[in-house]
Amino acid sequence: NGYEASKWRAEAQALASPLRPEIVRLAIVAGEEGTGAIARPGALHAALRWYRRGLLPMVPGRPESPVDLISTDLVARFLARLLVSPAEPGAIYHLSAGPATARLDALLALAADRCRVSDARWARGQFTPPVIATRATFAAFRASVRASGDALFNEVLASADSFLPVLLHPKRPATARAERCW
User: Fold this and answer.
1) Tell me, what DSSP letter sits at residue 40?
2) Alpha-carbon distance 99 to 62, whole Å?
3) C-alpha to C-alpha distance for 151 and 110, rounded to whole angstroms
4) Are strands 102-103 and 66-67 parallel, antiparallel or unpaired?
5) What is the pTM of this model?
């Protein structure tokens, strides 16, 4: 997506400079471990808000698509460790949940369970988890939403499009360098 492409271009420029920085690529930072507090909501949090309101009827991907979530605490601990480690100019570290990365189907089921406990509409079955759709099905859904002219669903789609399509391109980051640093 555009966000990831801009980060990649910035990294390329930084690595080509005489500074040769170390770069830490983060998985999706979901919130604090103990409290769940979110300092800076991102696309994931927006998608979960639409989900809770029952406005996300489908998501693109496959049931096994990884949704790599990490905590702000993990990021802070890793950066502190990196600061006292010997420098590796130009090194790229992938900070990821690694083998503990959640599957899309499991994450959607967990979110539905939490919604059923805290929201009467979910408990009554008024809202259900979204369908996991193929690229073609999600594209047809996107086209029908745009054609409908419905302002709310177009807003939901615009928000979801900033995050959800990456689920069609599963990533398994190479974490060996970050693990060695850790």
Assistant:
1) S
2) 18
3) 29
4) antiparallel
5) 0.84
